[in-house]
């Protein structure tokens, strides 16, 4: 057996990738370390330290004790879950329709979609569209906002085109219509692209804050990312922790501001990070495994 040959270029690439990984990973660990550090010892955590100084959950208690934060988390989860499901369904069914060979006007439709993808509408136009639809200050505005991403639509079309036509023809011979073919054949064989594109949609929905601040004006309709920006970027402490009962305790009132910011970032980051291990485990299975037997 011939061993692997380590060359200087391979070693240089390995070192560069390792350093790049550390550059992205260490700041994240540092945020977790600050969030879980004891308020009395957090000042000892200097630079990009990755080991918490002591251990305390008081920062999370202060952040999560605010009812506005709980409401914002619920709003963000609703927009992310419902919006991702809607976007996946309409993206997939649109991709299925556009991949049918007998579709009339397919070329003009694709040209129109490409133009939309290149020349995106402005903020003013999107605002007035939501206003005319009576969706302003409604969570459904963020669910409906950019429900179909044209780039993801094109990716889904490429996957559906790879599904053997013999499967669909066999279903049609048995009397299946387009909807049954879509549900019984296309969706099961598109599990991997559905998970991949669904993850992209979920991340975009969860992280959207600018349009949320425009479309949603009521305090009970705000989302977690807007609160995060107000507290971390604008340093608006009254919005996040000003009404917390825990702050009435004089010892807790001396909490480190950077630790509170770190705890807020962790609260906003953990839910979306939990998607990765759930989705990645499905990548090992073949998308067409057992689909066609010649």
TrEMBL record:
Domain ABC transmembrane type-1: 73-278
Cellular localization per UniProt: Cell membrane
Keyword entries, A-Z: Cell membrane, Membrane, Transmembrane, Transmembrane helix, Transport
UniProt keyword Transmembrane helix, yes or no: yes
Membrane-spanning residues: 12-33, 76-98, 110-130, 142-160, 181-203, 262-283
Membrane topology: Multi-pass membrane protein
Domain of life of the source: Bacteria
InterPro entries linked to this entry: MetI-like (IPR000515), MetI-like_sf (IPR035906)
Family: Belongs to the binding-protein-dependent transport system permease family.
Name of the featured protein: Carbohydrate ABC transporter permease
């Amino acid at each position: 057996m011939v061993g692997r040959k380590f060359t200087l270029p391979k070693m240089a690439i390995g070192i560069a990738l390792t350093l790049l990984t550390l550059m992205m990973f260490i700041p994240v660990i540092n945020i977790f370390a600050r969030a879980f550090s004891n308020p009395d010892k957090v000042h000892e955590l200097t630079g990009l330290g990755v080991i918490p100084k002591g251990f305390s959950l008081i920062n999370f208690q202060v952040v999560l004790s605010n009812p506005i934060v709980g409401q914002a988390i619920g709003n963000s989860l609703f927009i992310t879950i419902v919006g991702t499901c809607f976007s996946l369904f309409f993206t997939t069914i649109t991709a299925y329709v556009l991949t049918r060979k007998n579709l009339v006007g397919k070329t003009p439709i694709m040209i129109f979609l490409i133009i939309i993808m290149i020349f995106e509408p402005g903020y003013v136009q999107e605002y007035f569209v939501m206003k005319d639809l009576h969706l302003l200050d409604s969570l459904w505005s963020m669910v409906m906002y950019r429900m179909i991403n044209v780039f993801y639509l094109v990716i889904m079309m490429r996957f559906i085109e790879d599904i053997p036509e013999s499967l669909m023809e066999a279903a049609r011979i048995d009397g299946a219509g387009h909807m049954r073919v879509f549900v019984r054949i296309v969706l099961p064989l598109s599990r991997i692209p559905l998970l991949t594109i669904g993850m992209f949609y979920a991340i975009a929905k969860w992280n959207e804050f600018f349009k949320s601040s425009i479309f949603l004006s009521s305090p009970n309709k705000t989302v977690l990312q807007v609160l995060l920006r107000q507290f971390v970027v604008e340093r608006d402490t009254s919005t996040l922790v000003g009404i917390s009962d825990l702050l009435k305790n004089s010892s807790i009132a001396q909490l480190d501001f950077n630790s509170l910011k770190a705890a807020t970032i962790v609260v906003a980051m953990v839910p979306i990070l939990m998607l990765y291990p759930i989705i990645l485990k499905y990548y090992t299975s073949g998308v067409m495994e057992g689909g066609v037997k010649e």
